[in-house]
Amino acid sequence: MKAIVISNGEVNNDNFYKELFHQENPQYIICADGGAKHLRRLGIVPTTIIGDLDSIPMAELEFYKEKSIEIIKYDIEKDETDTQLAIQYVMSLPIKEVILVGMLGSRMDHTLANVYLLKSLLDKGLKASIVNEHNRIYLMDKSIELKGRKGETLSLLPFTDRVDGITTEGLHYSLKDAVMTKDNPYGISNVVKGGKVKITINKGILLVILAQD
Q1: Fewer Cβ neighbours under 10 Å: the N or C end of the chain?
Q2: 10 vs 175: CA distance, rounded Å
Q3: Which segments constitute the Thiamin pyrophosphokinase thiamin-binding domain (predicted)?
Q4: Residues contacting 20, CB < 8 A, separation 6+
Q5: Residue 28: per-residue pLDDT
Q6: Digits of tens for pLDDT over the chain (213 positions)?
Q7: Residues in CB range of 140: below 8 A, 6 or more apart
């Protein structure tokens, strides 16, 4: 079982996102507040809208109410972001994978906060990623296997202060039992050799970013 959570960040390439939803075929589509505007434009109906609803025009909200979409409203003055609330909700569902979209954009504070939210999903034992037209972002603490394209850029960044025992397969610049620290982020801009990439670590948490220009 799979869920997609869509937030109010940048969702620019409509064809990309329509294809993403079609290919992933999620059982649950959760909107964090203004993410509902993106789905309306894409012609995709969510299962749940959650948040303080301050970013949704009244006409959009009425449209979803008429379709009997579940709407969970919170007060504007709250400790959590709307995306946090959506993540907390999605973790209560019977799923194994979560894809987060609309999480990146010009607001660096929101972007970083959303990347940090991958940690709660990792702790829950869920496969999770942030996806947009140019990036696929993962957080790992043991091992991960990814499908990449030949020549695609892959970067490794320590999420914890130190990551030990980093070993890679399928990358141009291979690592074996390597150590990476936040003050020496040398894992930037590696290159995928073929279709499959495998990364394992012994200790710590690693951020993995597949990027296309």
Answers
A1: C
A2: 34
A3: 148-207
A4: 4, 99, 101, 131
A5: 98
A6: 999 999 999 999 999 999 999 999 999 999 999 899 999 999 999 999 999 998 888 888 899 999 999 999 998 888 889 999 999 999 999 999 999 999 998 889 989 999 999 999 999 999 999 999 999 999 999 999 999 889 999 999 999 999 999 999 999 999 999 999 999 999 999 999 988 999 999 999 999 999 987
A7: 122, 199, 201, 205, 206, 208
Task: Supply 159's token pair.
Answer: 């999420």
Domain end (from 133, 152, 187):
133
Name the residue among 193, 205, 113 with its Cα closest to residue 157: 205
One domain for residues 75 and 115 = yes
| Integer Cα distance of 57 and 125 in angstroms | 35
Quick one: which of 21, 19, 18 has its CA closest to 3? 21
| Judgement on whether residues 125 and 173 belong to the same structural domain of the protein | no
Distance CA 48, CA 174 (A): 43
How many folded domains does the chain comprise? 2
* Confidence at residue 189, expressed as pLDDT on a 0 to 100 scale: 96
Residue pair 181/206 in contact by the 8 Å Cβ criterion: no
Contact 103, 80 (CB under 8 A): no
Q: Report CA-CA distances (Å) from 79 to 1, 112, 186.
A: 29, 17, 36
The CATH number covering residue 198 comes to: 2.60.120.320
3-state SS assignment for residue 99: strand
